[in-house]
Design a protein that fits this description.
With about 350 residues, the chain is of the alpha+beta class. It folds into 2 domains: about 80 residues, 3-Layer(aba) Sandwich (Glutaredoxin); about 200 residues, no CATH class. The protein has 13 helices and 6 strands. The strands form 2 sheets. The protein has a 4-stranded mixed sheet, covered by helices on one side. A two-stranded antiparallel ribbon has the order 5-6. Helix 1 links the parallel strand 1 and strand 2. Helix 9 packs across helix 10. It is globular and about 60 Å long. The N and C termini lie far apart (about 50 Å).
C-alpha cells in the first residue's frame, strides 16, 4: 500500500483531540500514518486554517481537514467496518451528547489543571516544546517554553479557566471520576462491548488528565480502574464487540454521565447561547453551588444548536423512549428551544 492510499494524521501527543482521533482510527483499523507536529513539517501545513491539530489528509487528496468531530463523522461516511456510532438512533443521540460534553466541557477541566498549577505548567510546556522542537538548544528550548506558557495562560480566562471557576471545575472532575470509576460494571464501554465516539472523546481528555501531574495523582487515587481503561483505549484495534440492545433505560454509568451533562454542561451551553444573542460580554451561570463565568464563545452556540436539532430529528418512538430519562437528569428542558438554565 502506497502512502497515497493511506490517511496522513498530523497531531501532537499533548493534544486531547489528536489522541482521540488517533485512537479512533486505530480501533477502526483505518490505514494511516501518524505524524507528530514538529518544526520540520510546519511548512507543509502552514496554509491549513485554523491551525489546530489534529489535521487529517485523506487518501488521494492534497488538503488537510481539521476538527475531530466532523472528521470522525466523515470517516463514518467513508468506511463501513467497525463503526463508532451506535446503530440505535436513541443511543446514537446520547453518544453525540456525551461526546460533545467531553469535547467542550471536560476540556475546560483539562486546560484548568494543565495551566493553573505550576508543576503542571512546567511539565506541559516541556512536553509541548520537546515534541515540537526535538534537539533544540537549551536557550531556544527555554525561550519556546516561556512563549508557550505565556500564550496558554493568556487563554485561560477565554475558556473559563479562571481562579474563581477553579473550585467548580475541580468539583466537576471529582464527580466525573466517581461516575466513571470501574466504568465497566458489566460493560466494556458506554454502549456495549465496543467503543463509541463518546468513549473516544472521553478518552482524549482523560488521557491528558491521567498524564499531567496534579490530575494524574487525583485520578490514580480515586479511579485506578479508569486509569487502566484509558491505557487500553489508546489502541483498541484488537477489540471485537457488539452494541448492547437499547432498552430505553440507561445503565448506571450512562445515568451518571447524563446527570453531569444536565448539571454542568448544558446549563453553560444555554447561558452561552443567551449571552451571544444578547451581545453580552460575559456568560454567567450557576453550576455546582458556584457561578461559572467566561466570555461567550461562538463555537459552543453551534454545539447547542446541533444537539437540539439532533434531538428534534430523532424518530418519535426513540425521542419518546428517552424523554423520561432526559427529563430526570435535567437535560430535557435544555435540549428544547426556549429551554433555560
Amino acid at each position: 500500500m502506497s502512502t497515497q492510499d493511506r490517511y496522513r494524521l498530523i497531531g501532537s501527543t499533548p493534544s486531547p483531540y489528536s489522541n482521540k482521533l488517533r485512537a479512533l482510527m486505530r480501533y477502526r483499523r483505518i490505514p494511516h500514518d501518524w505524524v507528530p507536529r514538529t518544526a520540520a513539517i510546519e511548512s507543509e501545513i502552514a496554509h491549513v486554517k485554523p491551525q489546530l491539530v489534529p489535521m487529517l489528509r485523506f487518501p488521494d487528496s492534497a488538503e488537510y481537514r481539521v476538527d475531530s468531530t466532523p472528521l470522525a463523522y466523515a470517516l463514518e461516511a467513508r468506511h463501513n467496518a467497525r463503526s463508532v456510532i451506535p446503530d440505535d438512533p436513541g443511543d446514537a443521540f446520547l453518544c453525540q451528547l456525551i461526546e460533545d460534553f467531553a469535547d467542550e466541557w471536560l476540556t475546560k477541566i483539562m486546560f484548568h489543571y494543565r495551566w493553573f498549577y505550576a508543576a503542571d505548567a512546567d511539565f506541559a510546556q516541556a512536553w509541548i516544546v520537546d515534541e515540537h522542537q526535538p534537539g533544540a538548544s537549551d536557550a531556544r528550548r527555554a525561550q519556546a517554553m516561556e512563549f508557550i506558557r505565556q500564550r496558554q495562560v493568556g487563554r485561560m480566562a477565554m475558556v473559563g479557566c479562571t481562579e474563581n471557576n477553579a473550585p467548580l471545575l475541580e468539583a466537576s472532575f471529582a464527580a466525573l471520576l466517581e461516575v466513571l470509576e470501574g466504568p465497566l460494571h458489566g460493560a466494556a464501554y458506554l454502549f456495549g462491548s465496543r467503543p463509541s465516539l463518546a468513549d473516544f472523546a472521553l478518552y482524549g481528555q482523560l488521557e491528558m488528565l491521567a498524564t499531567d501531574p496534579t490530575p494524574q495523582a487525583i485520578l490514580r487515587a480515586r479511579a485506578p480502574r479508569l486509569d487502566v481503561w484509558l491505557r487500553a483505549m489508546d489502541d483498541a484495534s484488537g477489540v471485537d464487540g457488539q452494541w448492547a440492545p437499547s432498552a430505553g433505560e440507561p445503565s448506571p454509568l450512562l445515568q451518571g454521565l447524563l446527570e453531569l451533562v444536565g448539571a454542568d454542561y448544558l446549563p453553560f451551553l444555554v447561558a452561552n447561547d443567551a449571552a451571544m444573542a444578547q451581545g453580552s460580554a460575559s456568560v454567567s451561570v450557576p453550576i455546582r453551588g458556584g457561578r461559572f463565568e467566561q466570555a461567550p464563545f461562538g463555537y459552543q452556540v453551534k454545539c447547542l444548536r446541533s444537539l437540539r436539532a439532533a434531538f428534534a430529528e430523532l424518530p418519535e418512538p426513540d425521542r419518546a423512549q428517552w424523554t423520561p430519562v432526559l427529563q430526570a437528569t435535567g437535560c430535557l428542558p435544555l435540549l428544547t428551544e426556549g429551554g433555560a438554565a
